[in-house]
């Protein structure tokens, strides 16, 4: 039996999920190319003790295929840790353990090629040409899973350097902040983890920390059961059918569900600040938190930088000096560079959040002006089209299963509406209100 060739680019969680779900699909031959030499997942922000904000069951496969041998429970059993994990309780695991799980899965999947960078993808007659440095692979099906790009605000784009960097590089090299003033820009989970690490002296003891957030306060993650139904398949399907205006309005209200700070991290920071005051380690201004404020400009000032910060409520302007500026400003979607040869054949979606996304169909295939039979799929790049859950792990296995169903042209995996408390689908709502035959007879 001939097998359909599928090329997946990027071996992050998205395409690892695809490969894990496809491991026993005899009709498919999936090969995943990854430029890195070995598995890694946000290594630059792997702070000791940092906890996952999602359940361990939101792994590569479990929510679609619970008996799959690449599940997190299978990983625990393989490490002979399952009993201890049960005793410890698995409400939240550390990011370090989840990264170890991803490495475990990646090293066992036979079709992951590390150390192979894909430089570009183009069309040649009736196939894609996937070009690496020393080889070209022809295929009709490509799945892109390279992730989103770190977002650098305009004020910092011309001044980036060793001491002005994105939080994703916080641990990527040896640093020493002793005797330095540090500014942290951003109000989400990454900024809180960076501030917590600075207060604990991870890279030495800074003389001062200035933490600037545009948000009205340092808000905790919205984690109620009903809010978490935003991370269900049916919400994603409903969201995708909404108008662009409705989707943008809804996304604005979902911010804290995806990028709020874990309550435990906020409590830890508050406790660290209190302990510093009690121990008389802090002096006035040693850790200054500026909320509802935005950095409008940054300029060189001697060996450091001068930040212009505006209070968003009353318009007051202050200036803060920093030797080091850490940008905890999140990630944005853009056209992956390797798809540049296809730019003229692609359609794009833009929104008020600043994202430029490829236009995606309901099976996560990209709208492409190309030959029949050539299919391009995108993982983790359609937040404005599929909702707050798209960049995160919650729908990882569901999205991969949808893609595999589309490639196989059959419903190999059940990706339909799951049980939930909230009704999102208009069709489901109409069906629930349809009177039964018995009721109809009574009415008549």
From TrEMBL:
InterPro entries tied to this protein: FAD/NAD-bd_sf, Lys/Orn_oxygenase
Stored Gene3D superfamilies: FAD/NAD(P)-binding domain (3.50.50.60)
Keyword Oxidoreductase annotated: yes
Pathway in which this enzyme or protein is active: Siderophore biosynthesis
One protein family per Pfam: Lys_Orn_oxgnase
UniProt KW keywords: FAD, Flavoprotein, NADP, Oxidoreductase
Cofactor section: FAD
Keyword Cell wall biogenesis/degradation set for record: no
Family as reported in the entry's similarity comment: Belongs to the lysine N(6)-hydroxylase/L-ornithine N(5)-oxygenase family.
PANTHER family to which the protein is assigned, alphabetical: L-ORNITHINE N(5)-MONOOXYGENASE, MONOOXYGENASE
Name the UniProt record assigns to this protein: Uncharacterized protein
UniProt source species: Paraburkholderia youngii
